Amino acid sequence: xxxxxxxxxxxxxxxxxxxxxxxxxxxxxxxxxxxxxxxxxxxxxxxxxxxxxxxxxxxxxxxxxxxxxxxxxxxxxxxxxxxxxxxxxxxxxxxxxxxxxxxxxxxxxxxxxxxxxxxxxxxxxxxxxxxxxxxxxxxxxxxxxxxxxxxxxxxxxxxxxxxxxxxxxxxxxxxxxxxxxxxxxxxxxxxxxxxxxxxxxxxxxxxxxxxxxxxxxxxxxxxxxxxxxxxxxxxxxxxxxxxxxxxxxxxxxxxxxxxxxxxxxxxxxxxxxxxxxxxxxxxxxxxxxxxxxxxxxxxxxxxxxxxxxxxxxxxxxxxxxxxx
Length: 324
Ligand code: SF4
Fold this sequence. Notes:
about 325 residues; alpha/beta; 8-stranded mixed β-sheet; 4-stranded antiparallel β-sheet; globular; binds iron/sulfur cluster
């Protein structure tokens, strides 16, 4: 396994008390595999990714338990300079908002080139040539002419391509993409996702794709891990989840996607809001919003039940959900 996260716990000290952002997350990604981590905002998906990358805001954040193994090396015991070695050359991250992730006062060529001058000791001339090659690879038209342009001179989609180029620069084995297309319109979203999927196949990288949008992942993910209140509530191969969800939360997310065959019908919405992480409900954290909730759900935390060899659901009544 390229990346293995085991029983990870992360908390934040806030004025309202301790926020339990990640509560025992376990997942893995292999080379050439795409894992989509899906959940509403505050579900812990981005915090888990930040812990994996070693960029958690700490303090106030703190990893209180768990393991993160990358290429069989435990990352949580590494010193910061060793973590830096893993970041970039081993794993890289693509952020949602390219405009704030890129430096507005440096040209994209300088920012891409810096990856090669700093990490590979290349001359400025060679680094610039590498920057053009990468811009070409992510299909930025007229790359050689545009390498001296600033981030604001590019469209949102092109800026996201530059972010992808930066992530690819040092040839990582794993890319974590945190909502990489959320800020883009639908057509550009599809183009950027196609490019990511193509590059992942070409370089045989592992890809962790963080998103709140089930529609984005259907064509690109191999597996989906659905998160709620800091836990994985369902984990399964992508087609199984779409056809037969085994958790009421996943089912609710699927039912709330507009579909042509349900034209004219009111769109389903999961009632209520995700819980505050300083006051996660007892038992199953989803119970206040769950149409299937019963007494046991209010007291007993459901473990991740094995649905089949490669599927799990944290619902006491996953069989009924699967049948229904
Ligand atoms: Fe709903 Fe109960 Fe299953 Fe939680 S355990 S998802 S509350 S049925």
